[in-house]
Structures are given as C-alpha cells and as structure tokens.
Amino acid sequence: MPRDNSRAPGGTMHLSLKAGERVYINGAVVRVDRKVSLELMNDATFLLEGHVLQAEQATTPLRQLYFAAQTMLIVPVQASPARTLYGRIEDGILAVTTEPAIRDGLKAAHALVEGGRIFEALKVIRGLYAVEATLLGEALPDAPVPALLPAARLGARRRPALRRAAPPSDKA
Asked: Are 75 and 82 in contact (CB under 8 A)?
C-alpha cells in the first residue's frame, strides 16, 4: 500500500510501493519487484492494488456497482459497457431502497463518475458498504472495508496441489 499518495502543488502524484505490489495506471498493470517510489508527473488514472475488488467479491449490489466503476478506471477499453452496467446497477439500487445515506451516496458517486472522477466515486461507494450491510442484515467482516484479497493473492500463480503419499498397501 502506498505510504505517500498526496498530490503536490505542481499536480504530481507520489506513490510508494512495496516489493511485489501492483498499481493499475491508465489500464496497464505495473508490478514492482522491489520497494519503489513512483512520481506521476501528469494526470493519470490509477488504482492501487489494495482497492481492487475481485469479481468473486462483488456479492452485494454496492460491490457490483463498485466493480463496474472500477472497470471503467482500470480497463479503459471496457469503459463504455462498464458505464452502461454502472447505470443499470445504480438504477436497480435506487428502485429498491429508500435509505437516505445510500441514495445520497449514490447521487454523489454518480456526479463523480459523470465528472470523470471515478477514483473519488469508488471511495464514496466503499463508504456505503457498512450501511448496505446493515440493510441486508449482514455482519461486516473484521477486515477493513472493502474486504479485499491480500496483496499476495491478487494475480498470484496457483501452486500445484501437494501430492500425498499413498498409504502403505497390505498387498506385497
């Protein structure tokens, strides 16, 4: 996770990454092999690995909305279909909830998405997870919101299953 991701007065963004961490910049996945600091000198769309929601984690309406917005950000070639999906999910949520916090949050997120500020919209949506969990009668996980896969699991190669030795046979 970044230690310093503040924007300097000149518009640059400083990111500090640990070895093995990934960052999604303008649709490209960048993985660093050692501790590194990056300085983005111009406007770029990026998402840190710790904020990436995996498809199998999009198990609630707000997480599905988050996933659609995330897709707009990190897969630019899919931005148009993802925006359409975002609108459909948003409409579905608004059709079934009267919860003011959810409705106000979705209105704010919508304005951010329309303004091209998707990263900020993702933060708004993540902030609604607790309200959604209460409405759905679910307990929030102990992990920070969103409950994401640890960095080591994201994109990691699967290890082959360990083979266990067959028990000794009585047949000789």
From this structure: yes
